[in-house]
Amino acid sequence: MKVKILIIALVIIAAMGFLGFKYQVQIQAFIQTPEVVKSTRPFYIPLDKMVVSVESERTIYYVMMEVTLETKLEASIEGINYYMPVIRNSFVRNLSQRSYDTIRKNLKNIEQLQIEMLSGLDKELTRYEMNGIIDDVLITKLVVQ
Questions:
Q1: pTM of this prediction?
Q2: How buried is 137 (Cβ within 10 angstroms: 0-12 exposed, 13-18 middle, 19+ buried)?
């Protein structure tokens, strides 16, 4: 009885191996996961405004900044929303480490500030293996008071 079961099992395994070899291209096409395709239309995720105090030689100023994140991967939106506290923290830390004079200079070159913010954010998200999910940082409002 045990010998019959063993022979049947070997025949089944041999048949599966033969069919797998014969149809391996079709099986691989069925098993392969689809490639992640970047959309031509970007997705935008607006953040709540952030307020940070910065010091100068004589007084303390407040900086209010509104940011919108851009991604071309729709699948990244869920990750961005999940890591939103980390993202906001990265922006607040980045701004709070700047002086009033530095921020005033940044007002004349918003594009450079956006690049610096994106670079700092990518470094922070690397800790969570999520770097590269954000394609651009758009500063939509920046007020120094």
A1: 0.70
A2: buried
